[in-house]
Amino acid sequence: GKIAAYGTIDLENDAYEADLNLKDFDWVLPDARYSTPAVVVSVASSRDSMSVYAYEEDLFVNFNTPVSLDTLMARVSKCQEIIDYEVNNKYLDVDTLQQTLPPMVCELRIGRNNLVQQALKSYGIKMKNMSMDLVNDSTIYMKGRAQRLEAFNMKIDTLDMLVSQRNKYLSYNVHAGSRPGTNDEFANVTLKGGVRGNALGMLLEQQNIRGEMGFRMGLNAFLGDTAVNVNFFPKEPIIGYRKWNVNEGNLIAFNYIDKHFDANLSLKSDSSFVSLRTKHDHANHGQEDVIFSMGGVQISEWLRVSPFMPPMSGMLSSDVKLKF
User: What pTM did the predictor assign?
Assistant: First the structure.
């Protein structure tokens, strides 16, 4: 291949411009090959703006921000510090993160023929195209779509993702949709919810091609300094195309410090039931017995929830007690 680079520097006005052209790139590895006729990258920066434009066959990236390169790098570094702090403290302050990020607009488009597609192919992943838009002005907003996605023995016609900020709440919605004949059991799958502070919520829904609801259940998780508490909703979730009842006040809790586990979860549907609980003994201040019970559970119904499990029939019943 051939590389050509051009650039100008204006020190008086802190302005920079650079262009990189890579032609006839061909890289052969033992199990993969990466080749393209041309890669073009253009970067421009001044005291009050910066832009990056890159394209390679049917792939292009366009990035613009009203801050200089130095300011951008400083803000990105500060954001990394904030993210590390918030992860360690299990608390998302999306307002602080949004205000620290520089204002920006970023567009990404990936077609069929480019280096990204070649890299994905080496991992057994195929797709027709992908697009993503990321904006930070007064709020954070991200929208993405992939079409004709094939990965991990699964096919999805359209995969959509939406992330948006509302004040201190960051919401997300991921939807996988398929036409008849592609993945009829999982024709419409949606995962949606949001994060605010130390609270995380999510709801998973799955419908088949006939519009029948096969799964609908969600959870709320609260990550404290010492423990995580999880409860499930709605009161009548759907699992394996059957309506169940979950007990009011259900809870699963785990203490990070002393490794103490608590559970009070019960699911019932006609003669079927699943239960996970801890047997409390006021005389015992350590870990109580953990009791898992199920009865009359149709294996075929529960396996239909997962696209990776083979068909199987039968009925499950069990009683398991873990003593500590």
Answer: 0.89
**Contact predicate 138/164, CB 8 Å:** no
Partner residues linked to 172 by β-bridges = 163, 193
Q: Cα-flanking dihedrals φ and ψ of residue 309, to 5°?
A: -95, 140
- Phi then psi for residue 124, to 5 deg, are 75, 25
For the four alpha carbons of 94, 143, 128 and 53, in that order, the dihedral sign comes to negative
Q: What is the Cβ-side half-sphere exposure of residue 35, based on CA atoms within 13 angstroms? A: 6
Pairing verdict, β 169-177 and 59-65: unpaired
13-40, pLDDT tens digit by residue? Answer: 889 999 999 999 999 988 888 999 999 9
User: What would you measure as the largest C-alpha separation in the chain, in angstroms?
Assistant: 80
Q: What are phi and psi of 290, to 5 degrees?
A: -105, 125
Question: Using an 8 Å Cβ cutoff, are 129 and 111 in contact?
Answer: yes
Show Cβ contacts of residue 193 under 8 Å, excluding neighbours closer than 6 positions. Answer: 171, 172, 200, 201, 202, 203, 218
Q: What angle do CA 82, 87, 91 make, to 5 degrees?
A: 90
